[in-house]
Specification:
By secondary structure, the chain is mostly helical. Helix content is 81%, strand content 0%. InterPro entries: DUF1641 (IPR012440).
């Protein structure tokens, strides 16, 4: 930390630590709030459990697994993907779309499973009648507009 110097016996002076904390009280408080939220969500307990139960027995395995060349390359690619996902979710509309799908995923899956397990022959007239349903029409329009943008983006990758 800037401003903290070691005294003659190579130990950090407590007064220097106190001054650094006072100078950065806003940062310390922000971290304290974050830690309280993590604790309230059970993350701290989960980390303690991992620390006490998993790491002692598997530390050598984890060290070798996470420091191998393949793992490092995977982490780098995953990190780039994670940043892209974070950027994507920083857009309120995109975050709302992802949340709408995620929070309704069970219903979507059940409806798809039901449709697949009880297939009905669709005549042209039946299909036209289904297209008059505002929810079906809205869903098809959403998918088609998304496919148009996706096609445009993918053409630019070449």
């Amino acid at each position: 930390m800037a401003g903290i110097e070691k005294n003659e016996s190579s130990n950090v002076d407590i007064a220097d630590i106190e001054n650094a904390i006072k100078e950065n009280a806003d940062v310390v408080m922000a971290f304290m709030k974050l830690l309280e939220k993590l604790k309230g969500a059970g993350i701290v307990d989960a980390l303690n459990s991992i620390n006490e139960n998993v790491i002692p027995d598997n530390l050598d395995f984890f060290a070798k697994a996470f420091t191998s060349k393949d793992s490092m390359e995977t982490f780098a690619r995953s990190g780039n993907t994670l940043f892209a996902l974070l950027f994507m979710l920083s857009n309120r509309k995109m975050a709302d779309v992802v949340k709408a799908i995620a929070f309704n995923s069970q219903g979507i899956a059940e409806s798809m499973e039901e449709g697949a397990s009880k297939p009905q022959t669709l005549s042209a007239l039946k299909l036209l009648a289904m297209l008059k349903d505002p929810e079906v029409s809205s869903g098809i329009n959403a998918v088609m507009n998304g496919l148009k943008v996706l096609g445009s983006v993918l053409q630019k990758l070449d």
